[in-house]
Amino acid sequence: MIQTLEDFTPIQQQLIDVLKKHGAMSRNEFCEEFGFKTHTYDYVIRAPSKKKYPIRVEQYHKRTTIYDNLVKLEKKGIVERFSRNNGKVGASVKMWRLTTERK
Q1: Pairing relationship of beta strands 79-84 and 93-98 according to DSSP bridges
Q2: Ordered domains of the chain (ranges, CATH)
């Protein structure tokens, strides 16, 4: 099925345009591209030993908006997600790219 601009919301069209311009990106990179501001909050990690480790986390506002719209585009077959190892301990970075049909 061929999709037209009317099939996408303005933010979805912006996400597609950014992916066409820059290639694969993470959610944080999308937020930077759109000029979203960050906020900092304190978070406590509880270890199995019950010890608490306070950490400071900085995240972008509207990250969920980006994610929700990327998931909708993924369900339409427009984008796909994959993981990229960032060389650090912990979860790998989730990246998004246009599917091969859309490039």
Answers
A1: antiparallel
A2: 5-98 (1.10.10.10)
